[in-house]
């Protein structure tokens, strides 16, 4: 069996698009299509039905897809274990949503590293959608995300609860507003595709308001950049309470309550359902999900 063809098939189904899968796999669309045809030829069965809405699994395709998920995960485990044997030091690679990765997680990693000095740890801060993508393509084995995953093969474990709150600088006298007043504020939002933006859109919709009704002055892909803009008096933003606690205590930022708008969510460890953690991965997961430890 050609693992490259199987991986291409798996990614095509996950993204429901040959063009998107080709981009992720760094292949041309004709090249990916040829690999899919070769896999169908190898199995002697039609696996995918293509249309302008994407791809759909045939009954034979469903069987192959279910096995592909397991086979690729096992292959990843084998490669990981072989690399570990060939290396002097164990490695821990973590992908994290930015609201944790840029703030609380570095402290937790530092604490974990103090006890486990033999482990090389690397962490990449992304939005939650990108973290899930990296888990699905086996680039990472541990992710930290906001809220739940929409992917069927991704499991989660709860770490902590948080909420998105509207914050601005302290020049404002009023600390409670209506949704109608919210529409007139100059807002800075996270980028499209981020979970924070999704949560804001969802809560607004539940209150009969669209994101287009807001006065969005620009979007940024960094919570730190947004926080800096707000502290400089350049707008308002919905940010996780976790990352503005210090500024709220110091009085450099102000929490502004919006009537009937409560945006709570969880931080979760995310991982592939059938993935078996290495010794140090399991130790880190246990450490970060412990009620007595968690984030610093």
From TrEMBL:
Pfam families: HTH_1, LysR_substrate. GO terms for molecular function: DNA-binding transcription factor activity; transcription cis-regulatory region binding. Keywords: DNA-binding, Transcription, Transcription regulation. SUPFAM superfamilies: Periplasmic binding protein-like II, Winged helix' DNA-binding domain. The keyword Nucleotide-binding does not apply. Residues 1-58 form the HTH lysR-type domain. Belongs to the LysR transcriptional regulatory family. This is LysR family transcriptional regulator. It comes from Clostridium bovifaecis. The lineage of its organism: Bacteria, Bacillati, Bacillota, Clostridia, Eubacteriales.
């Amino acid at each position: 069996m050609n693992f490259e063809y199987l991986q291409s098939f798996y990614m095509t189904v996950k993204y429901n698009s040959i063009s998107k899968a080709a981009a992720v796999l760094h292949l041309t669309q004709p090249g990916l299509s040829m690999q899919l045809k070769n896999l169908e030829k190898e199995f002697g069965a039609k696996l995918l039905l293509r249309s302008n809405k994407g791809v759909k699994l045939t009954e034979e395709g469903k069987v192959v897809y279910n096995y592909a998920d397991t086979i690729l995960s096992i292959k990843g485990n084998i490669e990981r274990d072989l690399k570990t044997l060939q290396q002097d030091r164990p490695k821990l690679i973590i992908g994290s949503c930015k609201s944790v990765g840029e703030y609380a997680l570095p402290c937790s990693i530092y604490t974990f590293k103090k006890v486990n000095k033999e482990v090389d740890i690397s962490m990449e801060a992304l939005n939650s959608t990108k973290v899930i993508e990296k888990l699905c393509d086996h680039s990472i084995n541990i992710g930290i995300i906001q809220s739940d995953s929409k992917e069927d093969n991704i499991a989660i474990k709860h770490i902590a609860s948080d909420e998105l709150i509207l914050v601005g600088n302290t020049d404002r006298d009023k600390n409670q507003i209506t949704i109608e007043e919210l529409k007139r504020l100059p807002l800075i939002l996270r980028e499209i595709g981020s979970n924070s933006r999704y949560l804001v859109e969802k809560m607004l919709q539940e209150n009969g308001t669209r994101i287009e009704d807001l006065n969005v002055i620009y979007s940024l892909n960094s919570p730190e950049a947004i926080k800096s803009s707000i502290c400089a008096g350049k707008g308002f933003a919905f940010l996780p309470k976790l990352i503005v606690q210090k500024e709220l205590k110091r009085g450099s930022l102000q929490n502004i309550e919006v009537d009937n708008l409560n945006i709570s969510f969880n931080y979760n460890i995310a991982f592939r359902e059938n993935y078996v953690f290495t010794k140090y991965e399991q130790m880190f997961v246990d450490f970060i999900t412990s009620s007595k430890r968690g984030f610093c």
